[in-house]
Amino acid sequence: MNLKQLETVALVAEVGSLSRAARALGIAQSLVSRTIAQIETEWGDRLFDRTGRGVVLSEFGKRIFPHIELLLAQSARLNDEVRNAAGIPFGVVRIGVLPSMTRRLVPALFADLRASAPGVRLRVTEGFSGQLDEQLESGHLDIAVINRYGPGPRQAEDILATVSTYLVCPPQHALAGEPTVAFHRLDGVPLVLPPTPNGLRSILDQHARQQGIVLDVALEVESLNTMKEVALCGHAMTILPLLAVDDEVAEGRLAAVEIVDPDLLRSIALGVTQHHPLSRAARLVLSRLRALVPRVASAKPA
């Protein structure tokens, strides 16, 4: 067994096919089959079961695969640290970004790193805060840009910006022409929101109970684009930061009205995994995010 063989096992598990893995590696399928067979013989059990569409991990494979992933990740980090020891940041940095910030933040960060540290590669995951929290905790992410509601940051987090929250609706809606909307006026309004558990849902439910109103969550989705599309169609409204809809607002396709009484302030935090130490490349990305996130969060629609 060697790392190359384990990388082949991981690729086959990812693509679910010996032939697709062979094409990705640029080798004959027979070599992939031979590699898998050698490891199965050494370990005394099957790693994969054949299906009508390819292969899937066997029960034995499912038990062993997390250890393979961990070993490959440790090997990659060792390789990065060896390169970093020469003083040049190098390697893959895994970051999580909120959907509302992805289209502004990721291109800016990518351009910054290409100019200052071309050896650093980004692997970006887009997700809501709860999803990113889980991946930070498990070590699948190094850094994440996350929404927080309520007082104070969590441990090992920096608050980089604070933004308001808006009711997003079609421009022809009666509320669209108002400068602000009081929270109690959301009573019975059809809304499209992320499903629970979710920080925004928790704070909305808390204020609804305090004010004795009922939020009509007509649709739950885990996609920012779908939330906006439903609002564009006028079937339901949604609740987002202005950054998420600034283009649509500037084009007159959507309206955004700030929610007040109470103000629904969200803090944009920068979280770091406690699962493993950050590489030099990750520490560089962290410093660049500290500079870029406040700039992106404060940008106004054109």
From TrEMBL:
<protein>
    <submittedName>
        <fullName>LysR family transcriptional regulator</fullName>
    </submittedName>
</protein>
<dbReference type="Pfam" id="PF03466">
    <property type="entry name" value="LysR_substrate"/>
</dbReference>
<dbReference type="InterPro" id="IPR005119">
    <property type="entry name" value="LysR_subst-bd"/>
</dbReference>
<comment type="similarity">
    <text>Belongs to the LysR transcriptional regulatory family.</text>
</comment>
<keyword id="KW-0238">DNA-binding</keyword>
<keyword id="KW-0805">Transcription regulation</keyword>
<dbReference type="InterPro" id="IPR036390">
    <property type="entry name" value="WH_DNA-bd_sf"/>
</dbReference>
<dbReference type="GO" id="GO:0003677">
    <property type="term" value="F:DNA binding"/>
</dbReference>
<feature type="domain" description="HTH lysR-type">
    <location>
        <begin position="1"/>
        <end position="58"/>
    </location>
</feature>
<keyword id="KW-0614">Plasmid</keyword>
<dbReference type="InterPro" id="IPR036388">
    <property type="entry name" value="WH-like_DNA-bd_sf"/>
</dbReference>
<dbReference type="InterPro" id="IPR000847">
    <property type="entry name" value="LysR_HTH_N"/>
</dbReference>
<dbReference type="GO" id="GO:0005829">
    <property type="term" value="C:cytosol"/>
</dbReference>
<dbReference type="Pfam" id="PF00126">
    <property type="entry name" value="HTH_1"/>
</dbReference>
<dbReference type="GO" id="GO:0003700">
    <property type="term" value="F:DNA-binding transcription factor activity"/>
</dbReference>
<keyword id="KW-0804">Transcription</keyword>
<dbReference type="InterPro" id="IPR050950">
    <property type="entry name" value="HTH-type_LysR_regulators"/>
</dbReference>
